[in-house]
């Protein structure tokens, strides 16, 4: 090995590496190569991060190392080890078997004739080819630096793509609370990678509280993101950032610190807006990045406010539903004969199942809601398969106040609407529930509606019984169909308006 590559005449000062590191895998069967590589790159730093080295001395060890470290930024890979093409097999393993397209592979060989550069570059997905005899300390430094920049950009593009996917997926259904959270989370991820260099990006809101002390993290990206969700923002920020939080909230502005940024996102429908925090920045932001941050602060809260207003409407409707169900339950109990034919049939069938007087009354009252909502679902049933999903989203949005209402009656109706396509044999939709996993109240409401529709077809009792027998152990509980058969005449009388 040449003295030029050993760098014996170049003094290298050891220094403490930064907190975060770029992972470098060194794969070579010569221990000296590992030693001099680490020595040559010991003072290397890129974006405030040093290098973390992991060594393998054979192709087999390299496969294990690459499997255990999928986040490695660079592989410095020898070609000739236990075989003349061992390194090439490792490169193929990383790309094809592990599916790792991010790690940069720099091929280093002391015997270029064994693996000609043109052949290797064309046939293998590697990113650079170096001869050991020509690889000086400076050239190694340059190769690693350029590869790290490429790796950073590729990861940035991938993270930006994933963030954009979240935004697009959530934008199709911004009316759902969970979708709104994914929407904001996607924007935060996008912002983190478009600006770049932040170890942590947090987005916090105070809800209905006018007190900024109550701001809670709703979206997080970077270090400890999962652990920080739903924690108070001040408990998650570094101490040096805390004095600036109140100033930013009071001024409704943006503060740029040495390695952090705080941005207030004003709200039009809540006492307090939101707070965007980016910490651990490795460099000052450019003017264009500051403009992007201002654009984010001004506009992300508008989207959040729109959904917040819808949530407020849902809560109001849920309260109204709960109150109306109290009144409706009294009305159904006192004037059952004045209810619709479907409600009367539901009451009759519920009684036949011996589910108890209170549950019978609640189920009959739930029928007043189910009957109205079923008309909406009938529209979905008539749509082509390609249009069912948008319809389902629209209907979920329409009946969400039922789910939110603090009312047993509303919950019975909501569950029945969700279980209307479930089957006793487990072949239904959307969850494939089977047997008693489907609520008896749901089965009563669905079967009563089915029977009510059949009664409008002017069928004889014998024909109705034949239809019902065909459903035994398929769509409905056997004991429920038995109750229908025993009370069929009475039920059909109720079906008359």
Automatic annotation (TrEMBL):
Coiled-coil regions listed: none
The protein's name in its UniProt record: Response regulator
Modified residues (4-aspartylphosphate): 78
Organism the protein comes from: Aliidiomarina soli
One Pfam family in the UniProt entry: DUF3369
PROSITE patterns the record matches: HD_GYP, RESPONSE_REGULATORY
An annotated GO BP: phosphorelay signal transduction system
Every HD-GYP domain range: 310-497
SUPFAM superfamilies: CheY-like
């Amino acid at each position: 090995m040449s003295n030029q590559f050993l760098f014996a005449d170049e003094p290298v000062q050891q220094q403490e590496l930064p907190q975060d590191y770029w992972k470098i895998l060194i794969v070579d069967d010569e221990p000296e190569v590992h030693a001099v590589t680490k020595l040559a790159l010991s003072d290397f730093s890129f974006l405030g991060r040093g290098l973390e080295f992991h060594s393998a001395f054979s192709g087999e060890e390299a496969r294990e190392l690459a499997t255990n470290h999928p986040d490695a930024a660079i592989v410095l890979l020898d070609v000739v080890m236990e075989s003349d093409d061992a390194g090439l097999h490792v490169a193929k393993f990383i790309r094809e078997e592990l599916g790792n397209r991010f790690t940069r592979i720099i091929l280093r060989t002391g015997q270029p004739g064994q693996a000609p550069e043109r052949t290797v570059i064309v046939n293998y997905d590697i990113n650079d080819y170096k001869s050991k005899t020509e690889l000086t300390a400076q050239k190694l430094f340059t190769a690693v630096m350029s590869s790290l920049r490429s790796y950073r950009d590729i990861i940035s593009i991938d993270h930006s793509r994933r963030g954009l996917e979240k935004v697009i997926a959530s934008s199709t259904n911004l009316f759902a609370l969970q979708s709104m959270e994914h929407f904001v989370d996607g924007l935060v991820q996008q912002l983190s990678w478009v600006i770049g260099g932040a170890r942590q990006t947090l987005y916090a809101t105070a809800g209905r509280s006018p007190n900024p002390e109550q701001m809670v993290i709703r979206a997080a990206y970077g270090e400890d993101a999962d652990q920080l969700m739903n924690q108070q923002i001040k408990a998650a920020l570094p101490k040096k950032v805390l004095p600036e939080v109140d100033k930013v909230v009071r001024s409704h502005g943006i503060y740029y610190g040495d390695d952090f940024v705080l941005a207030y996102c004003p709200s039009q429908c809540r006492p307090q807006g939101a707070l965007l925090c980016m910490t651990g920045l490795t460099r000052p932001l450019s003017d264009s990045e500051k403009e992007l941050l201002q654009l984010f602060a001004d506009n992300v809260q508008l989207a959040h406010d729109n959904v917040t207003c819808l949530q407020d409407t849902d809560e109001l409707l849920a309260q109204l539903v709960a109150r109306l169900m109290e009144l409706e339950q009294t009305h159904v109990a006192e004037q059952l004969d004045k209810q619709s034919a479907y409600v009367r049939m539901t009451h009759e069938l519920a009684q036949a199942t011996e589910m108890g007087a209170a549950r019978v009354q609640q189920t009959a009252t739930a029928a007043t809601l189910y009957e109205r909502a079923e008309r909406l679902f009938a529209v979905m049933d008539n749509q082509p398969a390609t249009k069912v999903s948008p319809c389902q989203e629209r209907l979920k949005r329409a009946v969400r106040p039922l789910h939110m209402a603090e009312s047993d009656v509303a919950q019975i109706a909501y569950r029945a609407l969700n279980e209307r396509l479930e089957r006793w044999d487990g072949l239904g939709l959307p969850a494939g529930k089977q047997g008693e996993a489907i609520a008896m109240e749901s089965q009563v409401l669905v079967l009563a509606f089915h029977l009510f529709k059949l009664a409008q077809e002017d069928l004889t009792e014998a024909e109705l019984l034949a239809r019902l027998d065909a459903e035994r152990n398929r769509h409905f509980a056997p004991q429920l169909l038995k109750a229908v058969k025993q009370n069929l005449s009475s039920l059909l009388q109720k079906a008359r308006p």
